[in-house]
UniProtKB/TrEMBL annotation, chain A:
The lineage of its organism: Bacteria, Bacillati, Bacillota, Bacilli, Bacillales. The chain crosses the membrane at residues 9-30, 99-122, 134-154, 174-192, 227-253, 273-299. NCBIfam families: Opp3B. One of its GO terms (biological process) is transmembrane transport. This is ABC transporter permease. The keyword Transmembrane helix applies. Keywords: Cell membrane, Membrane, Transmembrane, Transmembrane helix, Transport. Gene3D superfamilies: MetI-like. InterPro entries: BPD_transp_1_N (IPR045621), MetI-like (IPR000515), MetI-like_sf (IPR035906). It is a multi-pass membrane protein. It is found in: Cell membrane. GO terms for cellular component: plasma membrane. Belongs to the binding-protein-dependent transport system permease family. SUPFAM superfamilies: MetI-like (SSF161098).
UniProtKB/TrEMBL annotation, chain B:
Residues 180-369 form the ABC transmembrane type-1 domain. Keywords: Cell membrane, Membrane, Peptide transport, Protein transport, Transmembrane, Transmembrane helix, Transport. The chain crosses the membrane at residues 47-67, 182-207, 219-237, 243-262, 297-326, 346-372. One of its GO terms (cellular component) is plasma membrane. Its main location: membrane. This is ABC transporter permease. InterPro entries: BP-dependent_transpt_permease, MetI-like, MetI-like_sf, OppC_N.
Length: 310, 382
């Protein structure tokens, strides 16, 4: 187990290093410079001062070295668009709304999805099952920004039930949360239904029934527990969908979060900001995948993670 | 079937010839793997609905832009922001009537303001109604909803824009179906490239095994560790946004899923007798891989490709939405939705049609892919 863990963490570090390096050099390939708009107004001297201030006058290998050293110390450099502020600090400031929204969507979505999937499996081939199926297909298929747009138009603009945008209190989080949670809900419902169907057909459920246990004990104690284990694996795709979601949902609802800032820094060539956010997303994703793999092995002893997986 | 057996006279029965061959004879029509799969797919209502959606959308994407005389680039500023109108379908809401909310100190004041603001003659006003009486929250203004005939007011009585026009007066019907065509193209091309790379990579990795496999798998492991959202965005930032850049960005990590599936299947198959037989007969590695192993994995390849197409379409739309997509005048469903977002509160029709089409496209692909998976590989049913 510890050997496996070490190996996985090793891969994690290599992956992160590759991402950091690739990001750095890709940014260097970019045609524009952050001072493009100023170029005509500034004299060469002023331009040189600006460049040296941000370390952009040094040769690329030295810039790269400085960047990696900074990274190890948790320093992501200074942002070009917001005068001289640390990227790390800027990201931290923006993290709260995104994390709040993502967490809320993930928790509510997962719980509703699991309940829906379970009910659908127990009431197999009834209208509940069909409804759950339709919800799952729609949730997986419709892009979150399309869904968010339609929600915003009908609920906020047309019927005036909830605020259209901005970030000023709980009722402002409802629409963005619903738009973000539709995918976790759908994928959980679908997964849970399949797993539950499989578990319900197994011998130990039959045995429990033969022993005369009540239906609720069988469902909650025997079936649900076992069906829940594989659902952990959807955490990976879920994280990705939440990250993708925050980029667009925050734009639509004008939420001062990480995604909104990221999209803006792309349009103004703020390299350190793009690199910093990219790295943060990558770390988040890699850590989630690692946690999923470890938890999977811990919860279900039948799965041994030490062996090769094919 | 009748339950009470009829008493049949003995003469009607005759003994059949007994022989060893007869026992082996197939009495049912022979079914190939594909015929069998098709029969299973046909029984799946969802998959057929998906197939119908996709068929209709694909047909419209091909012939839609040809159905009227507008082109995707043709701008007409006299006809900007015009709501949809279709001859004969006025009763369905395709009536070319624009709703507009204005505020004023009295009801008449609001109406006058609205008409002068929109530069519309009074004769084109169809109706007006007060939606909000003066109260504290709106600074004692009347809010009035006006309905007026835009086509008449702009002197376009004889024109019909089926999905309306955008802010530059381009016909949205043409742009929407043309955009659908481009979205489909991106999805299919990206999926095809993913398939090609994935099958080759996975095939080689699985077939040769050993050290080759080991190294190739480490590469995949690292690539899949990187969220593809990040890669796609970085690639688009670096490359000049456009059709080719998007396809390249989508395929750069997209193939790893396919490679993994193909590899694990090949690992399972390569030690079976038919491969040994082929090798004994002197077949080269390339021949064994291409003629014996890959065809046996076709089902899995098709299933995986079917799921890649909608995800590529989604990613393209997503990139367009955050402003990294196609550049005008070309439009995809994503760029149309993005453009519509700027003013959809007043002109919701700009958002609604592309949004509906992309939703049906994605639903169609997803349920068809589910159906195909169940049909080709009943064991994998989820």
């Amino acid at each position: 187990m510890s050997k496996y863990l070490l190996q996985r963490i090793g891969y994690m570090v290599i992956t992160l290093f590759i991402i950091a390096t690739a990001t750095f050099f890709l940014m260097k390939l970019l045609p524009g410079s952050p001072f493009n708009q100023l170029a005509s107004k500034l004299s060469d001297e002023q331009m040189a001062i600006l460049l040296s201030r941000y370390g952009l006058d040094q040769p690329v290998p030295i810039q790269y070295f400085n960047y990696i050293v900074g990274l190890i110390q948790g320093d992501l450099g200074v942002s070009f668009q917001f005068n001289n502020q640390d990227v790390t600090k800027l990201i931290m400031n923006r993290l709260a709304p995104s994390a709040y929204l993502g967490g809320q969507a993930m928790i509510i979505g997962t719980i509703l999805g699991i309940v829906l999937g379970m009910v659908a499996a127990i009431r197999n081939n009834t209208w509940i099952d069909y409804t759950s199926n339709v919800v799952a297909v729609i949730g997986i298929s419709i892009p979150s920004f399309v869904f968010a747009g339609l929600l915003q138009y009908y609920i906020a603009v047309k019927w005036d039930l909830l605020p259209v945008a901005f970030w000023e209190g709980f009722e402002y989080t409802i629409l963005p949360t619903i738009s973000l949670m539709i995918f976790p809900l759908a994928i959980c419902a679908r997964f849970m239904r399949t797993e539950m169907m499989e578990v319900l057909g197994s011998d130990y459920i039959e045995l429990a029934r033969a022993k005369g246990m009540t239906k609720s004990t069988i469902m909650l104690k025997h079936a649900m527990r076992n069906a829940l284990v594989p659902v952990i694996t959807v955490l990976g795709p879920m994280t990705v969908s939440l990250m993708t979601g925050t980029l667009v949902i925050e734009q639509i609802f004008a939420i001062p979060g990480l995604g909104e800032q990221f999209v803006r820094s792309i349009s103004v060539n703020d390299y350190p900001m793009i690199m910093g956010t990219t790295l943060l997303f990558s770390v988040l994703f890699i850590v989630v995948i690692l946690i999923v793999d470890i938890m999977y092995g811990l919860i279900d002893p039948r799965i041994r993670i030490t062996g090769g997986k094919d | 079937m009748p339950t009470n057996n009829k008493q049949l006279p003995k003469e009607l029965f005759e003994p059949i010839e007994l022989s060893a061959e007869k026992g082996e004879e197939l009495t049912r029509p022979e079914l190939s793997y594909w015929k069998d799969a098709w029969i299973r797919l046909r029984k799946n209502k969802g998959a057929i609905i998906g197939l119908v959606f996709l068929f209709l959308i694909a047909v419209m994407a091909l012939i839609g832009p040809l159905m009227n005389d507008y082109s995707i680039e043709e701008t007409n500023y006299d006809a900007s922001n015009i709501p949809p109108r279709i001859k004969g379908l006025e009763w369905l809401g395709f009536d070319g009537i624009q709703k507009w909310r204005v505020q004023g100190t009295t009801e008449d004041d609001a109406i006058t303001r609205g008409l002068t603001g929109m530069e519309i003659g009074e004769e084109y006003l169809i109706s007006s109604k007060v939606v909000e009486e003066p109260n504290k929250d709106n600074d004692n203004y009347y809010t009035v909803e006006l309905e007026f005939d835009v086509y008449g007011a702009r002197g376009l009585e004889d024109k019909y824009y089926w999905f309306g026009t955008d802010s530059m007066g381009r016909d949205l019907w043409t742009r929407t179906w043309n955009g659908t065509r481009i979205s489909l193209l991106i999805g299919i091309v990206a999926a095809a490239i993913d398939m090609l790379i994935g099958v080759l990579y996975g095939g080689i990795s699985g077939y040769y095994g050993g050290r080759v496999d080991n190294y190739m798998q480490r590469v995949i492991e690292i690539l899949t560790g990187i969220p593809n959202l990040v890669i796609v965005i970085l690639m688009i930032v670096v490359l000049k946004p456009g059709l080719i850049a998007i396809i390249l960005a989508l395929t750069i990590t997209g193939w790893t899923g396919m490679a993994r599936i193909v590899r694990s299947q090949i690992l399972k198959l390569k030690n079976q007798e038919f491969v040994l037989a082929a090798r004994t007969l002197g077949a080269s590695d390339k021949r064994i891989l291409m003629k014996h192993l890959i065809p046996n994995v076709t089902g899995m390849i098709i299933i995986n490709t079917m799921f890649t197409i909608p995800s590529a379409i989604f990613f393209e739309a997503f990139l367009s939405f955050i402003g990294l997509g196609l550049q005008p005048p070309i439009a995809s469903l994503g760029t149309l939705i993005n453009d519509a977002f700027k003013s959809y509160r007043i002109y919701p029709y700009m958002l609604v049609y592309p949004a509906i089409i992309i939703s049906f496209l994605m639903i169609g692909f997803n349920i068809l892919a589910d159906g195909i998976r169940d049909a080709l590989d009943p064991k994998m049913k989820r």
